[in-house]
Design brief:
It contains 9 helices and no strands. α2 packs across α5 and α4 packs across α5. The protein is globular. The two termini are 23 Å apart.
Length: 260
């Protein structure tokens, strides 16, 4: 395994990104706040009137934990993709950082931590909305929902590593669109967010097992409904292993990109 030279200075990288966010938070939170709500009401209440699930569950109850899994992924990918690329190539922030005692590994680890934090923030928006709507639509059904935010941070580390790995390969910011189209969008649509996986074909179910979002959606749905079992333990272990693999892959690839 690649040796990582990560120190406490990675937190300084995280703090730098946090301080920038504090100055531009209004435009940063506006669309990420409203987009999930539009989807929740448009699909959950609109399309939901025409959808009947085999277990008798309301469609809005089904997609709510899926959105808690999916939209934080988008926030994380946006930060570790477009945000990281801008800091690396346009603003030359990385060059300035590594000119100090901050190492390249510290920069990478700090970027991953910050992008995962964006996942936590996005999940908070959706969870708060779900809790407010629970008296009307019974969206949150278990006290295990308290673990949703820690799970979002945990999953954010995986998606952040994935996004940073993709960023290490692209030569223009527009090339990140290929990563989104080939990797992120398939997960978004067949990762168990909008459709019950047991009602899809066996081939799609098998393919979805290798998609990170499928495991995150499974865990978040179990935490919201209280239906936690062995499957979720497997999901957690799967995410932990994949996160380590992706992080060290991103570490290696970003070193290759940044060391000239």
């Amino acid at each position: 395994m690649i040796a990582a030279d990560i120190s406490y200075r990675a937190v300084r990288v995280w703090q730098r990104n946090r301080d920038v966010f504090r100055h531009i938070w209004k435009p940063e939170v506006t669309w990420p706040l409203f987009e999930p709500l539009i989807v929740l009401f448009g699909l959950g209440l609109g399309l939901g009137k025409f959808v009947e699930l085999s277990n008798g569950q309301e469609y809005i109850q089904f997609i709510t934990p899926g959105l808690i899994a999916a939209f934080p992924m988008w926030a994380t990918i946006g930060e570790s993709g477009w945000g990281s690329y801008s800091r690396m190539e346009t603003q030359k922030t990385y060059d300035a950082m590594v000119a100090t005692p901050v190492s390249i590994d510290d920069v990478i680890a700090g970027e991953v931590l910050w992008a995962a934090t964006k996942s936590l923030i996005a999940a908070f928006y959706i969870l708060a909305t779900a809790l407010l709507l629970t008296p009307f639509y019974d969206l949150v059904q278990s006290p295990l929902v308290v673990f949703v935010l820690p799970m979002s941070l945990f999953a954010g580390l995986m998606f952040a590593s994935m996004g940073l790995l993709a960023t290490s390969f692209v030569r223009s910011v527009s090339q990140l669109a290929y990563f989104v189209s080939i990797v992120i969008l398939p997960m978004f649509w067949v990762g168990g967010v909008f459709f019950p996986l047991d009602q899809l074909s066996e081939g799609v179910r098998t393919a979805s097992w290798f998609m990170p979002l499928r495991h995150v959606a499974s865990i978040q749905r179990a935490l919201v409904t209280g239906d936690v079992g062995v499957e979720q333990a497997v999901d957690v272990a799967w995410i932990a292993v994949v996160t380590l693999v992706l992080f060290y892959a991103a570490l290696w690839s970003m070193r290759r990109r940044l060391i000239k």
